[in-house]
Amino acid sequence: MAQTTDCTESTCEPCAYSAEHGWWGPLANRGNSHCPQCHRTWRSTTECHCVGCCRQFATERAFGLHRSGQPDSRVCMDPADVNWSNGKAKLARRDSVFGEVWSVNDERGVSWERDDS
Question: Average pLDDT in the 93-104 region?
Answer without folding.
Answer: 91
